[in-house]
Design brief:
The protein has 283 residues and is mainly β. The protein is 0% helix and 47% strand. The strands form 6 sheets. The protein has a 5-stranded mixed β-sheet, with no helix packed on it. A 4-stranded antiparallel β-sheet has the order 4-3-2-25, with no helix packed on it.
């Protein structure tokens, strides 16, 4: 479905908090990360213990997992409070593996990580660890030569995991794998990251500037885009009634919007000259 910018948006109260980053495309660096109410009010900067933006809320809304750089120079994971206080830095349970872990399991007991080892590319893939201390390392996927598997999301029942396989930051296959083991299956041949709906019946993603909702067989059940705009990075609201995403009409500039999953009742949340990306919606 192709849509034009609406003149009115959702009339209901917007619950929860948004977290998003401002990114300089020319230098390919994150400038800052911010938290705001879901309606965009009370925005404030969140201090991060690492150079990258992004991160994910825990499902209970009490913690945020972000990447950090540990003492030996490898990339690891810090758990911070919503005020930026570093609660703990997870141990790296392997002597050479880098493990930025930001995707929480449904019960917040584990984290999924993008694992990579410059000394051994065969180790590239997705791993999971204990969210308490970084222990109990378990491998979930093997990326294959020249590829990277980018963690997406656990299904609400914790049995499946959606991820993107890519050569770099370009769209690649959106894939689904059983957490208990087995070969992943391709849901879409070209897509960004995926997020399970809170009911577990569909997955939200972006592809080529469009926002899509697909079922667990990869069939498109909702799709919308906009002439002259590039829509990307969609995430669900905690209750699954709404989505948030970035909208760019003059790259490298994007603002954050909220809408229904079909693109209707859209509301603009940020309106700045900055490039606002990697939006997350927590409780």
């Amino acid at each position: 479905m192709m849509i034009r910018p609406p003149t009115a948006g959702t009339s209901e109260d917007l619950d929860g908090h948004l977290m998003f980053s401002r990114f300089n495309e020319s230098t390919h660096t994150f400038l800052s990360t911010h938290i705001a109410n879901a309606d965009g009010s009370e925005e404030h900067e969140l201090a991060l213990p690492g150079p990258e933006g992004g991160g994910r809320w825990s499902h209970d809304g009490a913690h945020i997992a972000v990447m950090t750089v540990v003492e030996d120079g490898r990339v690891g994971t810090a758990i911070i409070a919503p005020d930026g206080t570093v609660e703990r830095v997870l141990d790296l349970p392997d002597p050479t593996l880098n493990l930025p872990c930001v995707v929480w399991s449904p019960d917040d007991s584990r984290l999924a990580c993008e694992g990579f080892d410059p000394s051994d590319p065969s180790r590239t893939g997705i791993y999971t660890v204990s969210a308490t201390d970084g222990g109990d390392l378990q491998r979930l996927t093997t990326s294959g030569e020249g590829m990277h598997d980018l963690p997406g999301d656990f299904s609400p029942d914790g049995t499946s995991f959606v991820f993107q396989r890519s050569t770099d930051e370009e769209d690649g296959p959106l894939m689904l794998v059983d957490v208990a083991g087995g070969d992943p299956v391709v849901l879409l041949p070209q897509a960004g990251g995926g997020r399970f709906a809170p009911d577990g019946l569909s997955i939200l993603t972006g592809s080529g500037g469009s926002i899509l909702v697909v079922d667990l067989d990869g069939e498109i059940v909702e799709e919308f885009n906009e002439v002259g705009a590039f829509l990307f990075g969609p995430v669900w609201s905690p209750d699954g009634d709404l989505i948030a995403f970035s909208r760019s009409i003059s790259s490298p500039h994007a603002d954050i919007f909220i809408s229904r999953p079909d693109g209707s009742e859209r509301v603009q949340i940020t309106d700045t000259p900055d490039n606002e990306i990697v939006v997350e919606w927590g409780r």
